[in-house]
Amino acid sequence: MVSFKSLLLAATSLVSIAQSRKVFIENDGLEALQLLIPLYGGVEVVGMSMSFGSYSAVDAVAAGYNVLKEYNMTSCIPLYLGAQQPLLQTNDTFQMHSQLFGAPVWEGGFSPDYEDSYTWDEVDYDQDTPGAIALIEAVKKYKDTDPVMIFAAGMMTTVAQALSIYPKLAEEAAGLYIMGGYIDTQYAQAVGTAIQVDINTDINLIQDPEGAQIALTAPWKELYIGGNVTNYLVPSQELYNRIIAKAGSLEAINNNTYFTALQDIVYTGNYAENNDQETLPFWDDVVSFFMTYPELITSSTNVSCAVDTSFYSPFYGNLRIWGADFAPTAGVKVGNGTLVNSIVDSQFYDTMIEVLFQDWTQYCHTGTYAPLAGY
């Protein structure tokens, strides 16, 4: 059954797009939900930049391009190349710190055996404008009418570059929403399995601590930190069953080229049989969701925050937080942020399913979407 909310949003999106909230997406790759959830909620995506991080720069851009191509959105959502390396961190220093203080399970683009899956001639993006410049131009364009939210779900390098070039970015943007910023995860890292250690390792900040410190201590109107809540929303057999039932069968999903995102989620259809990398939390998607629907945040905590940038520290690249009355006043620059502790979980899963069963292929031409025929 199609929800009233879905029909209402589809009918009004074309009229409201000129007055909608706006977001610029910066990530180290892209999955469909991170783009589609904001669009479903009436948020206009004014641009995307893809950067080095969990993947190489070319693979990250390719991921963004593939999603845009899948939903026929290459003509209305510009794609840019963001940072191709951290501000200071190199593969050598990353590996050295791992040897000194312990290695993360997931090393992303810094993995010694990483090999590109794509070449630059396989992807289409705006080659004339660097991601940081595109971000600045988007924020400046709408600062007096519809200030742009920044959704950064990979390293903070591109955001830091933009702040270095244009320091007024923070005050002219609507706010920054980040994926990362775990707290109190040492015990889980000490006693957990490899996948549990991976899930509780703050790789987005660790790969570029200096960029993260610049980004998180800028004077944003709002800084929302995904943190631990992004680890709590995970796939399950119940979710698989709901998706498969809505599609009609697992075979129907696997035989429909439009259902790439669903194929990536349900995989075998049996949660217990999926491998570790197929059962990771919905990290970036959760931040995309509460950015789009802030009213569905059920608990949050205001903190002063900074990122440890001391190389000879076991906490290099980790978020540090304080109550406002107890934050450092000298020696360490701190910012002010909001840690999201919980959201309406059921609404996240409901929205995720609704979003992936919409027909988005005419969005660039009409500004609307509609439920897929037969679903």
From TrEMBL:
The protein's matches in Gene3D superfamilies, at most eight in alphabetical order, are given as: Ribonucleoside hydrolase-like
Annotated signal peptide = 1-20
A Pfam family that this protein carries is IU_nuc_hydro
> Keyword annotations for this protein?
Signal
| Inosine/uridine-preferring nucleoside hydrolase domain residues | 32-309
Entry's Gene Ontology molecular function annotations: hydrolase activity, hydrolyzing N-glycosyl compounds
The family classification in the record reads:
Belongs to the IUNH family.
Q: What is this protein called?
A: Inosine/uridine-preferring nucleoside hydrolase domain-containing protein
Q: Which organism is it from?
A: Saccharomycopsis crataegensis
